[in-house]
Amino acid sequence: MSVTTPAGFVAAGVPCGIKESGDRDLSLVATADGAPVAAAAVFTDNKMTAAPVVVSDAHLGASGGRAAAVILSSGNANAATGAQGVADAEAMCAAVATQLGCDATEVLVCSTGLIGIPLPIDTILAGVPALVGARSVEGGEAAAEAIRTTDTHRKETLIPIGATGATVGGMAKGAAMLAPNMATMLAVLTTDAAAEPGELKAVLREAVTTTFNRLMTDACRSTNDTVILLASGQAGPVPSRDLAAAVTAACGDLASQMAGDAEGATKVVTLTVTGAASDADAELGARQIARSALCKCSWFGQDPYWGRLASELGSAGIAFSPDTISVSYGGVTVAAGGVSIAHDQTAVAAHMAQRHLDIVCDLGLGNGHFQVLTNDLTHEYIDENTGGS
After folding, report:
1. Quick check: is 364 in a domain?
2. Last residue of some domain: 260, 278, 296?
3. Other residues' Cβ atoms within 10 Å of the Cβ of residue 87
4. Coil, helix or strand for 3?
5. Would the pTM count as exceeding 0.90?
6. Catalytic residue IDs
7. Neighbours of 315 (CB within 10 A)
8. Nearest to residue 72, comparing CAs of 140, 153, 160?
9. Are 172 and 238 part of one and the same domain?
């Protein structure tokens, strides 16, 4: 189950010296023959855009949406590094291209780690020959390990494309700064289905919209977010809807794994706002709650403090009536008509003690609906992010 399960792909992950720990920090996903295939990507919309995002976006434009490889480094984001950062990202692509025998514009690049620190480019370039030399069909696990930063474990997925025999494989990293749109995350997806770059881009953008873009752990948006999809075509064409469903399922699985591994989190919260005047209002309300430190702290404390949820909804700038809102935890309604009601407190307490919480806020005003995936706020999150870590 890895990014190399779809036919036509190889991968590798090696230590090159970016991380002082000596752990793997350089990753590669490539076509088995080094030839470019259809590719698409979705990037962060943070205007403080990291150099690898700038370079990968430009390369996809120059190649007409085709790529032979993706090189990923962890331990340094190569963000806020100016013109030198762009030159370093280009150098990473050129080094891989030289080894694979493809054009530099057919290589995409991703980096993750601390912001504002010059990339140790000489260290990385010295490690590229060993990285490319280590690529194999069995290299998916090592590649997924090599992109970890504060992740506690690698994140991989494999989804069948209907009954076609084709698959979508993927790997991702992400444990904090997970907020719309996307997260402090990198993801590489592969498929052996045949598709043109335009179709891949449409499929990937829609998949990201309903998965990664609904993941919010700490309301902070990254400079480096990138999701890339490569299609070897070796399994032949598949129905478009089946491809779209599989890519969405793969992205959803990876997003769920990231929510479960969020920095310091003890709870994974599926938060639904329904009964809103519109879907747009429901989204605004859900995101307002998901970014609320007060609400997050109550989840950490296993406290079904529904008043905090209602307060956030009332301040979200959406249609709202305190007389129609209801709130439930784990399917048990604790408030209706804007006031607390009698309920099974033991059942609610048992639900709040679980790892996964299911919270629904019904505004009672219409058919609007939106769901986000979020987490609690803990002491460990503060410890992890103190002192620039």
Report:
1. yes
2. 260
3. 14
4. coil
5. no
6. 184
7. 12
8. 140
9. yes
pLDDT string in tens for the chain (389-residue length): 789 999 999 999 999 999 999 999 999 999 999 999 999 999 988 888 999 999 999 999 999 999 999 999 999 999 999 999 999 999 999 999 999 999 999 999 999 988 899 999 999 999 999 999 999 999 999 999 999 987 889 999 999 999 999 999 999 998 654 443 333 589 999 999 999 999 999 999 999 999 988 887 655 567 788 999 999 999 999 999 999 999 999 999 999 898 888 777 899 999 999 999 999 999 999 999 998 999 999 999 999 999 999 999 999 999 999 999 999 999 999 999 999 999 999 999 999 999 999 999 999 999 999 999 998 888 776 666 565 43
Tell me whether residue 344 is in a domain: yes
Q: What is the 3-state secondary structure (H, E, C) of 333-356?
A: EEEECCEECCCCHHHHHHHHCCCE
- 21 token code pair: 């720990």
| CA within 13 Å, CB half, 87 | 8
User: Tokens 């969020």 appear where?
Assistant: 262
Domain with 252 in it: 9-260
Domain end among 220, 235, 260: 260
Same-domain check for residues 190 and 336: no
